[in-house]
Amino acid sequence: MNILCPVCKKILYREDRSYRCENGHCFDLAKEGYLNLNLKNSQNTGDNPTMIKARKAFLEKGYYQFLRDGVNALIDNEDELVDLACGEGYYTSFFNAKERIGIDLSKTGLKIASKSDPDGIYLLNSIFHDPLEDESADVITTIFAPLAKEEIVRILKPKGRFIFVRPDQRHLYELKEVLYDEPYLNETKNIDIEGLTLEKQIPIAQKREVPQEDLQNLFMMTPYFNTTSDKDKEKLKKSESLNITFAFLIDVYRKS
Ligand SMILES: C[S@@+](CC[C@H](N)C(=O)[O-])C[C@H]1O[C@@H](n2cnc3c(N)ncnc32)[C@H](O)[C@@H]1O
Ligand SMILES: [Zn+2]
To answer: Is the CB of 46 under 6 A from ligand 1?
Structure first.
C-alpha cells in the first residue's frame, strides 16, 4: 500500500529511517519505529498514557484473545490490511495479513505498537484524513473506535472488506449492574455505510471471571469511566471479582 505525503499527496518512499516524496518532503521515523504524518496541531491526541497502560495490562491477560482470533480468522494472508485506530496494536500486530498498517493519534499507543511489531507500519495520523492512496486496501478493520465512513470507502479496493467490531447488547452488563441502579443494554442497530454492503454480522461472546485488579483496568477502557460519578466508581472497588459477559458484534461489509 502506498503511503502519501501529507503536504503534496505524492507517494512517500522509504529511505533508511525516513520517508520522502518526489517533492523533497521528508518525514523521519520515530526511534520506536512509527511515522508521524500528522501536520495538524489536533486537539485530539488519542488515548492518553493512563488509558493505554490500563488497556495494555487488561488485554495482556488474554480476556479478548477469542475476539482477536475471531477477527483474524476473517483475514487472508494475501490481504493488505489497514487497522484504523489501532491503539497499541494488540489486534494489528496479530493479524495474519501480507501487509499491516496501523493508524492512530496516540503517540503512547504507537510507540508500543511499533516497538513490539517491527514488521508492521504504524502511522500517527487522524483516521479521518488517512495518508493512503484511493483503493489500496483489501481489508480495513476498526475495533472499538470511531467510524471514519468516507475514508474507509475511499481507501478500500473494489470488493474490499471492512470489519467493524463493536459491543453487543450484553457486553459488560454485570459491570453496569454494579455501577448503576438501572443498567441498560447497548444499542446494536445496523449501521449503514454508503458505498458498502453489510454482508454478515458475527456475534461472538464469552463469560469470564474478572478479579478486582483487572476490573479497574477494564473499567478504565470503557466509555463509562469518564461519565461515572466518584461515588459510583467506589462501588466497583468493593467487588472481589465479577463474572462478566464479553460480547461483541463483528460486522463485515463489502465495497459494492
Ligand atoms: C478504545 S481505543 C481502541 C484501540 C484498539 N482498536 C483496541 O481495540 O485495542 C480507541 C482508539 O481510537 C484512537 N482515536 C480516537 N480518535 C481518533 C482519530 N480521530 N484518529 C486516529 N485515532 C483516533 C484512540 O487514540 C484510541 O487508540
Ligand atoms: Zn510531498
So the answer is: yes
